[in-house]
Predict the 3D structure of the following.
Amino acid sequence: MNYFYFPLEQWTNTFVNEWFLPTFSSAFESISVVLNSFVDFVTNTLLFIPAELFTLILVLIAWRLGGKGLAFFTLIGMLYLGSVDIWEESMNTLSIVIVSTFVSLVIGIPVGIFSAMNNKVQAIVRPTLDFMQTLPSFVYLIPAVLLFGLGGVSAVIATFIFAAPPAVRMTNLGIRHVPKEVIEASKAFGSTSKQLLFKVQLPLAVPSIMAGVNQTIMLSLSMAVIASMIGAPGLGATVLTSISRVNIGLGLVGGLGIVVLAIILDRITQGIGQNTK
Amino acid sequence: MSKISVSDITKVFGPNPKQGLERLNQGYSKDDILADTGNTVGVNRASFDVEEGEIFVIMGLSGSGKSTLIRLVNRLIEPTSGHVYIDDEEITNMNKDELIEARRQKLGMVFQNFGLFPHRTVIGNVAYGLEIQGVEKEEQIEKAKQSIADVGLNGYENSYPSELSGGMQQRVGLARALANDTDILLMDEAFSALDPLIRKDMQDELLRLQKRLGKTVLFITHDLDEALKLGDRIAIMKDGQIVQIGSSEEILENPANDYVSNFVKDVDRSKVLDASQVMRRPEVLTTYKNGPRTAVRKMEEFGASSIFVVDRDERFQGLLTIDDAIRSYKEDIPMEDVLKRDVHTTTPDTALNDLIGIAVDTKYPIVVLSEDNKLLGIISRVSILSGLVLGKEHDEEVTEA
């Protein structure tokens, strides 16, 4: 089928190395600095809090939002993280998850709102999201490293690309699914578009948005593991080390740690979603 | 000055509404326009005026454009052409802010499926219109509570809509529209989603509220009985056009075309019509002064077996049968003494429905009297009773015959 040769590889390399990087390096530099200090701040805060206090707070949150069972599971899970000596790694992973979820939501929810209000925006946003979700993550790990260097910031960017789409999609969906008559009622009584959005559409979209938040967190967590390949510290790095050393035991320790974090985060965010219904 | 005045309002849906409108003005039919251009004519040059304090009902089957029409009034749907005036202010050329202000101050709306805000309590729903206007919190609560009381929902202020029955939900919808204290209520099939008993309650409630508050109501329905019950005037819509506007009686008695007459033929007229609409002038009347001989001759002349007797001032005296007339003549008894005075009488505004029982009991026609006992007309038993069995068309033949 190669009737002609399409030098996509060379063109991309030339484009990135000779124009894109030199032009935008300072911009990426500043993004990098901001994100880096954000990640550091969260990591340091999490590690500064005594493990016992952190566990207590998390157990209380779990109890409040997920009930006794979840609180018990959280307690056991936290004890596990401490007793197999992966507390610091867990907190590193957690901070990358927190920062990338935060970035995903801050960007994703407004984009979701705009695409719900405007079909043209949606026509652009949808294929972009498809692209972000289906492109193999390793493909954008490389440019992330090129642009932001090895470490936590690249991990956050890569994780954002992977984890933001559900936040956008579910926000869009939630707003679009508000019953037509409810919207009409709001308009008929003289709501401005802003009042319609903040008093009717967004409150009614909250359960759907929360489902999106939940998905974003879950995807962030799974990406945080892959991101260890570009130097992100945390549980992913533990697993990666175990693979390179063929250390099955270490692999299980890190892997279980990820599962524990995943279950706790999932149940707690689901609890928030249900409480707002 | 009409409260609401709508002139030539038109809505064409589809890819090219202007083209559809042109075709419409050239006289093409709705179906032709759809086939040729892919545009759907929702409302076709509808015009009507609603007077202050009136309940104006727009009645049509589904797809007749009635729900679109009511939304053109407050521009939930933008008209393709035509004008809407409210209190002589043109709604159709207002900018966004003016329109929002007009909706807040002039137009309350009640929806078929209630359109309540599920995340707000009853009082939160009712106060919504005031809240978005930036009314003081205390005043919001006070006014909202007042309209909740008006619709009889006291005690449910802090319930959520999902906790209420359909009828109660629609009371919330009604209270929400009342809370803004607008002169006009737009009601889009407001009671259609309710079951029949609740619907009847709500209709009575609306009539009661309307009497007390004097709102101007534009009411949409597909239910003719509801239209006849509520409407001071009714507009009948078909294929986006208004085919007739008139009072219940006018529409039942003089349908503008086959569509309307077909529509109203199964109506239970007894519920809608009153005595004055079915009575006819008695052909034969006599007075005491004329004596029994004249009475008999008149009966013979008109082929009747009885005659109504009135005094000089047309005040009703009684019924004289042929047998009694002959007895009076032969035995020389005064007519006063043989007159049947136990004939049933009624007033002109009595509903036909209420006369059925009498018609079943009596042998004689029912006599319609004015307040000062003047004989206005008579209603034959057959015109009441046949309507129950045979429907309108046959009924008419009988009364005319």
Summary: The CA atoms of residues 39 and 253 of chain B lie 36 Å apart. The mean pLDDT of chain B is 86.
